[in-house]
Amino acid sequence: MSIADMFRLDGHVALITGGGGGLGGAMARAFADMGADVVVTARSADTLDAVREEVEKRGRRAATIAADIVDPATPKMLVEETISRFGKLSILVNNAGGLGGVDTTPLPLNQLSEESWAAQINLNLTSVWRTSKAASLHLSAGGVILNISSIKAFKPEGGSGAYGAAKAALNNMTVALAHDLAPRIRVNAIAPGPVPTEAFKRVRRVTEADYPRVAKEWGVPLGRVGHVDDIAAAAVFLASNAGSWITGQTIIIAGGM
Asked: Is 211 a catalytic residue?
């Protein structure tokens, strides 16, 4: 097997939560480029259709499932639906995350509502545990779980307390899962820096013209914000045989932050 072949994902079936756009959509396209079939899920069916079309344009099978990942019944359903449609599950990407609750903008912890604290922990941590638990019972040998964390797990700022705390706990859980599931399943995480997805731009109230300022304010040594394909390329590496001797790690992809 050549080095290039080690990055192939032929024969794999990937389930990507939060797959309706941004990072999820980029990973779906990248996995399809490397030969995988893909199931994407998000709360809104409207955002999923475009991703499905992009995967199918690449000659791979795709399926969409509209579901709320924080519903305790959803993870088991997603795993069963994936296997029912494509016969197996070999890669799980826990990408769904972000702010949750009634507070739709970042707030200091002493101003955050009880509901929003619980919602952010549920979305960014508990739902990942549930989905990983459901998938681990069915992932094929050599399977992969990939968690999407955040630079805020390492460098929290004002207004990101609940989100950062959940992502820091997610990094710890990634190590625990890796040990619990080895050697049959590898578990890793990616912690992106500032990547202007639609959600990022909406919450931070920025446009493309603001990107240089954002990179400077965040202190990115490489001097630019990230692109979704920066993260998707790393996801391919960790999901493929190229990353077959890596487990229990959180890889920071943040331009040197």
From this structure: no
Q: Name the active-site residue from 7, 31, 86, 163.
A: 163
State how far the Cα of 209 lies from the Cα of 215, in Å rounded to an integer: 12
Average pLDDT, the chain: 95
Tokens of 139: 């992932």
Angle at 251 between CA 247 and CA 253, to 5 degrees: 155
**Chain CA centroid to CA 128, Å:** 10
Domains of the chain: 3-251 (3.40.50.720)
Residue with tokens 């001797």: 245
Whether residue 225 contacts residue 213, with contact meaning beta carbons closer than 8 Å, is answered with no
Confidence at 140, pLDDT banded by 50, 70, 90:
confident
> Would the pTM count as exceeding 0.85?
yes
- The tokens for 210 are 């603001």
Radius of gyration of the chain (CA): 17
